[in-house]
Design goal:
Elements: E1 6-15, E2 21-27, E3 30-36, H1 38-48, E4 53-57, H2 60-63, H3 69-78, E5 83-86, H4 92-100, E6 105-108, H5 110-114, H6 117-126, E7 131-140, E8 149-151, E9 154-162, E10 167-172, H7 173-183, E11 187-192, H8 204-211, E12 218-221, H9 227-237, E13 241-244, H10 246-249, H11 255-264
Parallel strand pairs: 1-4, 1-13, 4-5, 5-6, 6-7, 7-11, 11-12, 12-13
Antiparallel strand pairs: 1-2, 2-3, 7-9, 8-9, 9-10
Helix pairs in contact: 1-3, 8-9, 9-11
Length: 271
C-alpha cells in the first residue's frame, strides 16, 4: 500500500518589539518580515485542509530561552490536525511541557546535537512518534565532509547548523540523520539554509541524500515556491512530506490547489 504524502504549512514565530508572539518570513534564515498572528494562521490552515501544522520558535535556542508555551497552547486550541512545535527544547522536561501545552510532536535541533542522548530519552518517555529531529543544513564545498552529493555540477557535503542556522557544527548532516534515526527519532525535518525563503525549489540533493540513507520519514523544508516544487521533492528526492510557508501565507497557492495539482500528477495525497 502506497503511503500518502503530507502537505504541511509552517509558521516561524518570534517575539515582536512589544514582546508578543508574531509570525515572520525571511530568506536564508535572515531579513525577517512580519507576516501575521500565529493563532489566526493556525485557525486558517486547520480549516484549509492541511495535513499537519508546524510551529517553530525561531529564536528560542539562539537566545537561550524557553519556547513560548502560552502561544503554543493558544495555537493548539485552534488546531485539530497534528501539531509539531520546535525551538528551545533541550531536556525531556521541555518535551513534556511542550506536549502538555498541546503539541503532538516536538522538533529538536540544537538540544539534540549538544546532547544526542536526548533523542533516546524522549523516545523512551513519550514514544518515537513524538520526536522529530530538525536538520538545519548548509552546503560546503570542501574536503571536511563524510557524504558528498552533486549540486549543480559541483561536489558538496551538508553541514549541520544550530541556533537557527547561526552557527556551524562541522557535523555531516547525512551522518547525523542516520544517528538520529538510530537513536529513536520518529521523523526527520530537513531544512536547507541555502534555499530557505528563496522560492526556487527545495534542496533536492540534500533531501535525496537524507532520504537515501534513512528509513525514517523525511519532511522536506525550505525553498518551496509552487506545487510543482512539491511534486519534484516527492518524485526526485523521495520525501514523505513537504513543508511550505510563504506560498500559503501570502495566498499565492491554497492547500486545496496544491493537493489538486499533486493528485493530477499521480502523487498520492490525503483529501
Amino acid at each position: 500500500m502506497t503511503l500518502t504524502k503530507r502537505i504541511i504549512p509552517c509558521i516561524d514565530v518570534d517575539l515582536d518589539d512589544e514582546g508578543e508572539a508574531a509570525v515572520y518570513t525571511g530568506v536564508n534564515f535572515e531579513d525577517l518580515e512580519y507576516t501575521g498572528d500565529p493563532v489566526e494562521l493556525a485557525k486558517k490552515y486547520n480549516e484549509a485542509g492541511a495535513d499537519e501544522f508546524v510551529f517553530l520558535d525561531i529564536t528560542a535556542s539562539a537566545e537561550g530561552r524557553e519556547t513560548m508555551l502560552d502561544t503554543v497552547s493558544a495555537v493548539a486550541d485552534e488546531c485539530f490536525i497534528p501539531l509539531t512545535v520546535g525551538g528551545g527544547i533541550r531536556t525531556t522536561e521541555d518535551v513534556k511541557e511542550t506536549l502538555r501545552a498541546g503539541a503532538d510532536k516536538v522538533s529538536i535541533n540544537t538540544g539534540a546535537i549538544e546532547r544526542p542522548e536526548l533523542i533516546g530519552e524522549g523516545a523512551a518517555a513519550f514514544g518515537s512518534q513524538c520526536i522529530v529531529i530538525s536538520v538545519d543544513a548548509r552546503r560546503r564545498f570542501d574536503g571536511d565532509g563524510e557524504y558528498y552529493a552533486d549540486a549543480g555540477g559541483e561536489s558538496c557535503w551538508f553541514e549541520c547548523t544550530v541556533k537557527g542556522g547561526r552557527e556551524g557544527t562541522g557535523l555531516d548532516a547525512v551522518e547525523w540523520a542516520r544517528e538520529a534515526a538510530d537513536r529513536g527519532a520518529g521523523e526527520l525535518f530537513v531544512n536547507s539554509i541555502d534555499t530557505d525563503g528563496t522560492k526556487d525549489g527545495y534542496d533536492i540533493p540534500l533531501t535525496k541524500a537524507v532520504c537515501d540513507n534513512v528509513s525514517t520519514p523525511v519532511i522536506a523544508s525550505s525553498g518551496c515556491g509552487s506545487p510543482a516544487h512539491m511534486d519534484e521533492v516527492f518524485t526526485e528526492a523521495g520525501a514523505d512530506a513537504a513543508l511550505a510557508a510563504s506560498i500559503f501565507h501570502f495566498g499565492e497557492y491554497s492547500v486545496d490547489e496544491t493537493k489538486r495539482h499533486l493528485a493530477d500528477r499521480g502523487i498520492p495525497i490525503r483529501p
